[in-house]
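Here is a typical sample entry:
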Amino acid sequence: MTNKRISRSLIVMVFGTFFGILCSTLMNTGLPQLMTAFHVSEAQVQWVTNGYMLVNALMIPVSAYLIKRFLFRNLYIWATVIFLLGTLLGAFCHQFLLVIVARMIQAIGAGMMMPLVNVLAIRYARPEKKGAIMGIIGLAFNFSPIIGPTVSGIILDYLSWRYLFIVILPFILVTLVASLVVLPKIPHNESPRFDTRGLLLISVGLWSILMGLSNISTAAFLSWRVGGLLLIGVLVTAVFIRYQLIHPEPLINLHVFNHRQFVVATAVNMLIVATMYGNTILLPLLIQTLQHRSALVSGLVILPGALLTGTLSRLSGRLYDKISVKRLVFLGLAIDCTGTLLQAFIGTSSSPVVLALFQAVRQLGLVTMLIPLQTHALGLLPYDMVPDGVATFNTIRQVAASFGTAIIIAVVALVNAHVAGDGHLGIEAGFLVCLSLLLAAVLVARRLQSQFKTTH
């Protein structure tokens, strides 16, 4: 394809995917309102976000098969239609269970959109432009989940939670029309078999682990609801991994882990993303539940950092083309750790202005790392492994977001249940979990190698 056709296609796909990923955190600020409207607990309401991210994660490896099996254009159009149907259901449903179902249908569509954008960029962009193009894609992948709570905060200050679905509808309709007009027909010559057993195994494994983590705050660790589900989840996931290694056409091609830099960059990204998504729930809980401020204030606290992410995403992609990924990641981690320390030890009793400043510091660190890590993980893979690499990278990203959020919320609930107080210590503990994950990322990042002398 010509660069002009690639650019037009990427614009349409990034636009649609932006709203797909935006929905992963759009409901975060609305969780307190949903708890009130449907009379549900924290453990139940988090499924509105965690259920979305889990289904999203499961759809990403499925998309690796679909990319090989069907026309690129048709896949993106169908993904947009499915996302549109989930949004319509959410806009008009009247039961909490249907809200979760609507979110999961949205996640099916969004989970198909994400890998399609990456595959187009990595496969068809010129090598010297990959960093810059991935910076543009970063607007969808990294800016949208951060701006989600701000957008929902503004909406919820004037309208009900239902409008968190309604406002998305016109943008998805525009994406659908533009996709029909702009996207080219990219030929394919593969007819792989679908690994149904693999999908069932990973679905049961991840669902069991997430359920176990979600129940930590409401049941004893050695109970069936926590320890039992976690054990089943780990065992089934282990069976899945072994099965994938011997299957001729696996759901996820685990041989991408033979490439050391892919493993290192993916592991660092996993730890960082867990803190990023966890933070988008911690701040609304702190501001709305403990400080008793409005959803609008909660959203505005996140806004400066979100704008910083959007502004610098393209720059961070260009920096990857010129500066060693290891230097960029260590700089980003130093900034992120500083912001997290400030949040943990000063932020919980601070004004919204101070909280916004600390969050902006964190986002500066994140935006320095996320695009370079993604480009490093995928850009060094052999051409024929790119779809599998994209699927694996994005699956792990979404699983990390889902599990990280569940762990952080569980720690908050546990501390609040066992320590007397107004809840500030629980939020502080949540921020400290984020800090511990970032420190783990520092240790892993030591194994990153410069992209200018690395081939695998």
Q: What stands out?
A: Residues 3-194+251-445 form a domain with the Growth Hormone; Chain: A; fold (CATH 1.20.1250.20). Residues 386-418 form the longest helix (33 residues).
